[in-house]
Amino acid sequence: MRAFFLNPGDLSVEMREAPLPQPGAGQLPVRVRAAGLNRGEFLRHGLTKPGAAKIGGTEGAGEVEKTGQRVMGRLPASFAEYAVMDEADAIPVPANLSWEEAAAIPITFLVVYDMLVQQGGLRKGEWLLVTGVSAGVGVAALLAAKALGARVIGTSGSDDKLEKLKALGLDVALRTRAPDFAAKVLEHTGGKGVNLVVNNVGGSMFAECVKCLGYEGRLATVGYVDGVMKAEMDIEALHSKRLKLFGVSNKMRNAAQRGVTVEGFKRDFLPLFASGKLKPVIDRVYDFKDLPEAKARMEADAHVGKIVVRI
């Protein structure tokens, strides 16, 4: 089969021939129809571990061999014509979704479910702040929050991207790439601050995000594309405002813990996708052979929403 290998050294990708993967116990063989790209794969401090080159990709959608069942979900080595999926990660694809749309959902919206619902407890009428709102997880957070009835403030360095997101329901657009937005956030929330922050940028925004939180506010750290891994902590604000700080990552979770999120997603989010109330935003779809171009677009930060390859 054809597959794109990711080199951990320089994070380059190369198409090669590879043997068909063999499913183990509790796994499903999948004919991959589309795969989503995730920024964390292409960061030196991200998801890619040192070692020999291996098939890239972390999510996708396709047909289960023999049964033909349409599934989406976490799919390691999805940059290939065939891959294997853990049965616990298999999510049925609603009939109204294309392969490309299905492939754009799993990682970002499972992460979003974790940070908005499971840990974040976001409720109707609350305020959500998303830094780097035009990235894949940021756009998904915006869409999910609006479906839940929340109000959303987003930051981005691009007026053009913010205009596109206003059409998707972004309530307050703040054009900035600097940690200078707390005063405007407080202004738009009547001085109360937001209920939940999704920090999609990293350490350079952490202290500013804390300033934006209101009483019993929650702060989710989900990314660090800025590469800044340390930040100052306002202990007085943490104490007096009864804040909650939490991370959103699967790096140390076991299969059972990940499965709880998958089951919650199926219960709470899948009906929203099936009804059309929630739909992923796809920036661009590339043919499989053009995956290096898709990777370059992601690295150039030119996208709004998800980048997908059709296999």
Question: Mind explaining what this structure looks like?
Answer:
- By secondary structure, the protein is of the alpha/beta class.
- It folds into 2 domains: 2-105 and 280-310, Alpha-Beta Complex (Quinone Oxidoreductase, Chain A, domain 1); 109-247, Quinone Oxidoreductase, Chain A, domain 1 (Alpha-Beta Complex).
- Helix content is 29%, strand content 27%.
- It has 10 helices and 16 strands.
- It has helices spanning 99-103, 106-118, 136-147, 159-166, 182-188, 203-212, 235-240, 255-268, 270-275, 291-299; strands spanning 2-6, 13-17, 27-36, 54-55, 59-64, 70-74, 82-86, 91-92, 127-131, 151-156, 172-175, 194-199, 213-221, 244-247, 282-287, 306-310.
- The strands form 3 sheets. Strands 3, 5, 6, 7, 8, 15 and 16 form a 7-stranded mixed sheet that branches. A 6-stranded parallel sheet has the order 11-10-9-12-13-14, with helices on both faces. A 3-stranded antiparallel sheet has the order 2-1-4, with no helix packed on it.
- Helix 4 (159-166) links the parallel strand 10 and strand 11.
- Helix 2 (106-118) crosses helix 3 (136-147), helix 2 packs across helix 8 (255-268) and helix 5 packs parallel to helix 6.
- The chain is globular and about 60 Å long.
